[in-house]
Amino acid sequence: MTEGYCTYACINNQGCTDLEAPSHWTCNILAFAGCEDVPSKWCGSQSEPTDFPGVIVECP
């Protein structure tokens, strides 16, 4: 992953790993969209769901 934070869409956490994202990143999405909304997901910090509870969720 050479572009950086939020650059790549993901399907799940494995997708972020496959993109060579930093090991502490997960596949995240805004909670209202749900994990089924593939285009809206991004690889980002695993702390986002904790830092923004009810707003951002992890899509494992």
Task: Give the N-to-C terminal Cα separation.
Answer: 19 Å
Please state how the strands of the largest beta sheet are arranged side by side. 2-1-3
Q: Please work out how many helical segments DSSP would assign.
A: 2
| Content-based structural category | alpha+beta
Strand content: 15-25%
Element order, helices and strands?
HEEHE
Low-confidence spans: none
Total strand segments: 3
Domain count, please report it. 1
Global outline: globular
Can you give the mean pLDDT? 87
For the biggest sheet, the summary is: 3 strands, antiparallel
The portion of residues assigned to helices is 10-25%
Question: Any idea what the radius of gyration is?
Answer: 10 Å
Outline the structure in words.
The protein is built from 2 helices and 3 strands, in the order H-E-E-H-E. By secondary structure, the protein is α+β, with helices and mostly antiparallel strands. It has one domain (13-58). A 3-stranded antiparallel sheet has the order 2-1-3. It is globular.
Which features characterize this protein?
single chain; 60 residues; alpha+beta; 2 helices
Q: Topology of this protein?
A:
Elements: H1 13-18, E1 25-30, E2 42-45, H2 48-51, E3 56-58
Antiparallel strand pairs: 1-2, 1-3
